[in-house]
Amino acid sequence: MNDTASTSKTTRATMAQALVRHLTAQRIEIDGQEIPLFAGAFAIFGHGNVSCLGEALYSAREILPTWRGQNEQSMALAAIAYAKAKLRRRIMVATSSIGPGATNMVTAAGVAHSNRLPVLLLSGDSYHHRLPDPVLQQVEHFSDPTVTVNDAFRTVTRYWDRITHPAQLIPSLTTAIDTMLDPADCGPAFLGLPQDVQGVAYDYPARFFEPRTHRIRRLVPDPADIKDAVSLLRTAVRPLIITGGGVQYSLATAELAKLAEKHNIPVVETIAGRANLSHDHPLNCGPIGVTGSNSANNLAAQADVILAIGTRLQDFTTGSWTAFDRDARIISVNVGRYDAGKHMAVPVVGDARTAIGLLGAALGGWSSPGDWASQAKREVSDWNRYVDTNTRPGNAPMTYAQVVGAVNRLSGERDRVVTAAGGLPAELAANWRTKGLGTVDIEFGFSCMGYEIAGGWGARIAQQETEPDADTIVLVGDGSYLIQNSDIYSSVLSGKKLIVVICDNGGFAVINKLQNNTGNVSFNNLIADCHLDVEPFAVDFEAHARAMGAQAETVESVSELEAALARAKAADRTYVISLKVDAHDGWTTEGHTWWEVGMPEVSDREEVLKAGADWDAGRARQRRGV
User: Which fold has domain 2-214?
Assistant: First the structure.
C-alpha cells in the first residue's frame, strides 16, 4: 500500500530542473562512506543553455557547484582530469550552448572516450518544434532536418541521446549514469537538450528524485579463464607483467605488487600505468614502448609469456607490435571484453583486483626462474644510471630531461604531475621516478595538446578535496600553451593553485624531430621554419601569465628552476615558470622501440627514401595480429 502510494506521487518540474535534481540525488560509496557522485558542473552559458539549464543549476549551486570555464573544450578537459584523479569514482558535468560551443567539446569527448573516462556532456540543441528554423548557430542538413552538430558526438561517446520529450529524461539519464560507472563501458555520455524541451514541465515520479547510492561493480572472471591463464603462466621461463591504467581504476596497485613479489615476476608500466609501482620497488622495471626504457623493452623482447593487466595495448605500448618476440604468448586481464581479446590473447575478462587475487591463489608456490629476475635487476640498474646522467644539470640550453629531473627532485610524495602531447609525455615517462602511487597523469590516449593546464585545473579541484597540502604541477610545451592557456585565469579565479612549468623550444619541436628523422626538411613546425612576415620572436610567457593573475618568472638554468620551484610551492596562488629548452639535441635518446609511421614510397629526396628503407627494416619484428 505504501509502495503504491510512493510510486503514484509526482513532482512537477521542467526537464532541465529534473535533470539537475536527479544528478544531485546520486550518491556513491567510497571506502565505506557515501558522498555525492557528481562533484560539480563546468559551464559556459549561451542562448542554448542559460535560461533553462542555467536556471536549474543556479538553484542547486550550493550542492552542485558550477565552475565557469574560459573555453568549452578546456572545461570538459578539466572535468575529464577530475574523473581520472578520482579513479572514475566521481563525475563532473560539462555544459555548453548550441553550435560552436557544443562542437568545441567534441575533442574533449575524444579524450574521454580514448582514455575510458566518465564525463557527462550536456549541450543545447535546436528547437524540437522547429518553428523558428533556422536558428542562430544551426547547421542545416538539407536532406535530414533531425541532424544537428550534436550528432558529431556519436562517434566519441559511449552513450548518446537527444531528449525530445521531458519523459525521455527518466530512462536516458539513468542509463547514461550507469554507463559512465560501468568499468567495462566507462566513457563519456552525451545528452542533447533542445532549447524548448529544456523548459517544458512534466509530472516526474517522485522516485526519480530519491537518493540512489552507486557502487562500482567488480566483475569476477570465469574460472575457466583463470585456469587457462594459470596453465600458460606456469610454462613461462621469462614471464613479464605489463600494467596499465586499469590497475589504478580497480584500486589494485597493492595486489599487483603482491603478485609480482610472490611469484618473482618483473613488472613494466604503460604510459597510463605510470605510478602503479613506486620507482624503488625491486620489481619495477620501468616504462615500456616507444616512449619507454631500455630495461622494460629489453625484457619485453625476451619475454615468453606476457601478463597484460588493465591495458588496451595501444601502439606506443607495443612499439606497433614490434616490442615482443613473435612467439610470445599474451594473457590479457581486462574488465572490457573488447580489450581482453586483442591479438589472440588468452582473455581473462574481469576486474583487475579480483583477477589478480585469483591468479595468485591458483599459481600457488610457482615462481619465475631466479636468473630472469636477476637479469631484470641488472637491466634496471643500467637504465637508472642512464637516467642519472640524462637528468643531470648541464650547460644551457636546458633539456626536457633536466627539467623533468629538477621537478621530480623538488616534488613531494603526493604531488601530482600533469602533461600531454608533444615531447613531454616521452620525456616524463622515461625520466620520472615515482614517489607516490597514482600521482602521474600523462594524457597520451588521445594525445591532446591543450589538455595540460585545463587538466591541471580539474586535477587540482580533485586534489584539494582530499590532499590540500599537495601540489598539482603542470609541464607544458610552448606549442600546447599557445593552443590553450586560459585556465591559468580559471585557476586563479577559483583559488585552485597550479604550478605551471612552460618548456619553450620555439614551436612543435618533437614533430620537427620526427620530420627530420623521416628524411624531411624542417618545415612549418618550429616557428623559425614557418611562413612568416616578420622575424621570429619569443613569446613573453611570464608577462602573459601575469596578465591572467598568476605569479610568474623566467629562469635560465636548472639551479634557477629549482629555486623557482621552491618559491612556487610556497606561493598562495598559481605560479608559472618559463624557461628555454633545447629544440634539437636535448632529447632522451635511449629507451625507444620502433613505431609505425606512414612513409612515401616515392620522393624527390634521397633522404626520405633512405629513411623509408630504414623504417621498413624495423618492421621485421612486427606481429601479424596473433
Answer: Rossmann fold (3.40.50)
